[in-house]
Amino acid sequence: MSLRSLDLVSEKLTPVEIKNKEFKRTVWGYAPQEVVDFLDATAKMWERVQKHEKELADEIRRLSNEVETWKRRETELDQLRERAREDASSIRNQATQEAEAFFGEVKHKAEEVRGKTEEWLATVISELEETEKKRDSIFGAIRASLDQHYELLDHAQANLKRPSGHLGSLENTENRLPS
Q1: For residue 27, which of 43, 117, 148, 179 sits 20 to 30 Å off, Cα-Cα?
Q2: By three-state DSSP, how is residue 65 classified?
Q3: Is 63 in contact with 35 (CB distance < 8 Å)?
Q4: What is the pLDDT of residues 98-114, one digit of tens each?
């Protein structure tokens, strides 16, 4: 119900109109004092009705204004909620894109690290194999050198035993020399 179109019943008839209403007199009419008393009582009651009706109309206006205020707030909240949904969706999409880009970078870097690690490992294995070959070669050379030294030692030892017999012949030669 629109407040502008709200026709107040009490405005159609005022207490003053009731109080000042004059009736035509007839021969068999009403007792004038009773009519006046009734009209005074009716006017007073009508005045209270008007006051109450005005209070109700003011309350209706106030409540209607409050409803409109709440409707505006509700509309604003709906708009804010929709904006928040759109922002959340946008943030979610942006975060997804950033996460995918970050994941791609991490994956690329991991592949680079893996490649470099595999190259390094191949180099280390190659160097280890080369070192093992050198070690084996050195051990072989040392073994050969030791074998030669053992042979020399064996030969020297064998020759050391002979000279004692050889020394005996030298002693014999000493005895034979002229003094």
Answers
A1: 43
A2: helix
A3: no
A4: 999 999 999 999 999 99
What are the distances in angstroms from CA 118 to CA 104, 106, 129, 152? 21, 18, 16, 50
- Secondary structure class of 70 (helix, strand, coil): helix
Residue 27 has pLDDT above 60, yes or no: yes
- Give the Cα separation of 11 and 53 in Å (integer): 10
DSSP 60-106: HHHHHHHHHHHHHHHHHHHHHHHHHHHHHHHHHHHHHHHHHHHHHHH
Whether residue 141 has pLDDT greater than 70: yes
Tokens (6 digits) for 53: 């009706």
Non-local (6+) Cβ contacts of 128 within 8 A are none
Amino acid at 85: R
Question: Which residue do the tokens 């009731």 mark?
Answer: 18
| C-alpha to C-alpha distance for 154 and 156, rounded to whole angstroms | 5
> Is residue 148 exposed (0-12), middle (13-18) or buried (19+ Cβ within 10 Å)?
exposed
**How far does CA 129 lie from the centroid of its chain?**
51
- Tell me the percentage of the chain whose pLDDT exceeds 90: 54
Alpha carbons within 13 angstroms on the beta-carbon side of residue 123 total: 6
Q: Which of 74, 21, 76, 65 is nearest to 43 (CA)?
A: 21
Confidence of residue 176 (pLDDT cuts 50, 70, 90): low
